[in-house]
Amino acid sequence: MMAMAQEKIELPKGRAPFSEAFKAFISQGWSPYDPNPPQTLASAPSAAAHRLEASQLFPGERLVIPAGAYKVRNNDCDYAFRPHSGFAQMTGLGTDREPDAVLVVEPDASARLYFHPRVPRTDPEFYASPRYGEMWVGQRESLDEMSALCGFPTGDITELPQALTSGHGRVPLRVVRDADPSVTALVDALRGEAQLDRDSELSTALSELRLVKDDWELAQLREACRLTALGFEDVVANMARAVEYGRGERWVEGIFGLHARHDGNAVGYDTIAAAGDHANTLHWVRNDGPLVPGELLLMDAGIELDSLFTADITRTMPVGGHFSEEQRQIYDAVRAAQQTGMDAARPGAQFADVHAAAIGVLTQAFADWGILPVSVDEALSPQGGQFRRWMVHGTSHHLGLDVHDCAQARAEHYRLGELRPGMVITVEPGIYFKSTDLMVPPQLRGIGVRIEDDIVITPNGYEILSSHLPRDSHEVESWMSTIAPR
Q1: Which residues make Cβ contacts (< 8 Å) with residue 167, sequence separation at least 6?
Q2: Residues 6+ apart with CB under 8 A from 25
Q3: Residues 6+ apart with CB under 8 A from 330
Q4: Domain extents in the chain
Q5: Terminal CA-CA length for the chain
Q6: Do 438 and 353 meet the contact criterion of CB atoms below 8 Å apart?
Q7: Helix (H) and strand (E) counts for the chain?
Q8: Sign of CA dihedral 151, 153, 155, 160
Q9: Alpha helices in 209-324, H assignment, sequence order
Q10: Lower CB density within 10 Å: C or N end of the chain?
Q11: With the CA atoms of 185, 191, 192 and 193 taken in that order, what torsion angle do they form, in degrees rounded to the nearest 10?
Q12: Topology of the domain comprising 38-210
């Protein structure tokens, strides 16, 4: 992974050695680097505030927050790099920045980013390093350029061990353990032991600092939702073509992915494009089935911005443009459940109230349709839970830098906690009637519906961030016919 001392560039086996003549030739005749510093990231003030908050939670301690390293996909091919969300939160860096970097927040709340800076073009790394070489990965920042970009000091990654041991006496260290194993090993060696509980407290704190979004973060989520809606619109525009192809699920996944890469950084998570009975598999990401007129397409997708904030939206759409009577029956029940769940979302309400409100509507629908074998009260009780046969997942989760944001937060602040202004959550009830479910009338089997929107808690209630897309069944049909007239 990361080199703690300047290392000699090793050529991959089988590659011809570079001649002295080539080394002399490759190192000259280049335009000088731009002397003007880059503009400071718009995320810098938000990141600075988070660093101060984190430091105040651990007074007198040194916090170590790695970006992480490349992860191998297969053989010598790596996945595209994405930094640890805690690193992005505390530095403001997004997209693919900065592999192997480490943020260190000092006891006085000052910070320094340690990374592998650009080397001179006379250095063999320039042309010979697939990991850092400008010929291989593009132009990298110098120390000064990275400092200007982030808005705080930087240092060479080789200085990290010394930085972690500096100061009078032994400054207590905490590290985000799951971000970079080599950095964790270094910290453990310096401390003389692994301190799992202390490090876990740091990860928990970083998660909890993301529970309430600031104005800049909310603006990022609004933009992610807006762009995601445009991706859904293009899916509808291409649905007829997707029907023509054997694997239409892959086609619409690709259409959305094109928007994600063009308008943002990537998809925020693996796109679910589930047509027909595939909609009843909650995490259907194989996406290898056809789109058939008369069936539904459940699409769960979100665009992640360069800042790494992501949307998370689900729409269930009739492939032929119109819901059947049975499809509309199920869809409208989910729509009513979602609205009831949203209406329960307000400051001071429990996070769990949203789920309870939504499943109450769904369970009553199951009773009205004659498929619930017990009373509504029993089905909703902890001793019963029969409703979960057709709605097995939770209705909400936090959203932000991660699609399932704040996952390390303590239960009393998340699942057992109160909603507060600035929290962003999803509301996503569903009904899933598998084609093999003999408890369900034949005409309803194979129909799966989920509707998901992203909302922010406001002082007086909530705001739908994903309001660009229709939710009412008739409005969905009208929207689809406007985009792709039939």
Answers
A1: 62, 107
A2: none
A3: 431, 433, 444, 447, 449
A4: 38-210, 215-483
A5: 55
A6: no
A7: 16, 17
A8: negative
A9: 215-237, 239-244, 248-263
A10: C
A11: -70
A12: Creatine Amidinohydrolase; Chain A, domain 1 (3.40.350)
Task: Give the tokens for residue 26.
Answer: 């490759």
Token output for 486 = 């039939």
Closest C-alpha among 164, 173, 160, 174 to residue 206: 174
Longest dimension (CA), the chain: 85
Residue with tokens 């699609």: 403
* pLDDT tens per residue across all 486 residues of the chain: 344 444 455 555 556 678 999 999 999 999 999 999 999 999 999 999 999 999 999 999 999 999 999 999 999 999 999 999 999 999 999 999 999 999 999 999 999 999 999 999 999 999 999 999 999 999 999 999 999 999 999 999 999 999 999 876 689 999 999 999 999 999 999 998 989 999 999 999 999 999 999 999 999 999 999 999 999 999 999 999 999 998 999 999 999 999 999 999 999 999 999 999 999 999 999 999 999 999 999 999 999 999 999 999 999 999 999 999 999 999 999 999 999 999 999 999 999 999 999 999 999 999 999 999 999 999 999 999 999 999 999 999 999 999 999 999 999 999 999 999 999 999 999 999 999 999 999 999 999 999 999 999 999 999 999 999 999 999 999 999 999 887
Residue 78 pairs with which residues in a beta bridge?
72
d(CA 457, CA 347): 7
* Distance between CA atoms of residues 384 and 365, nearest Å: 17
How far apart are the C-alpha atoms of 248 and 227, rounded to whole Å? 22
| Continuous segment of H or E residues that includes residue 326 | helix 325-343
Per-residue burial over 340-375, b if 16 or more Cβ lie within 10 Å, else e, is bbbebbbbebebbbbbebbbbbbbbbbbeeebbeee
The letter for the amino acid at 378 is E
3-class state of residue 426 by DSSP: strand
User: In 3-state terms, what secondary structure has residue 25?
Assistant: helix
CATH of the domain spanning 215-483, picked from 3.40.50.300, 3.40.50.2300, 3.10.450.50, 3.90.230.10: 3.90.230.10
Query: Does the pTM of the predicted model rise above 0.85?
Result: yes
- Containing 141, the helix (H) or strand (E) segment is none
Residue 156: closest CA among 39, 32, 5, 40: 5
Peptide bond just before 98 cis, omega within 30 deg: yes
**What whole-number distance in Å separates Cα of residue 25 and Cα of residue 16?**
16
Q: Are 147 and 154 in contact (CB under 8 A)?
A: yes
Compute φ and ψ for 387, nearest 5 degrees: -60, -25
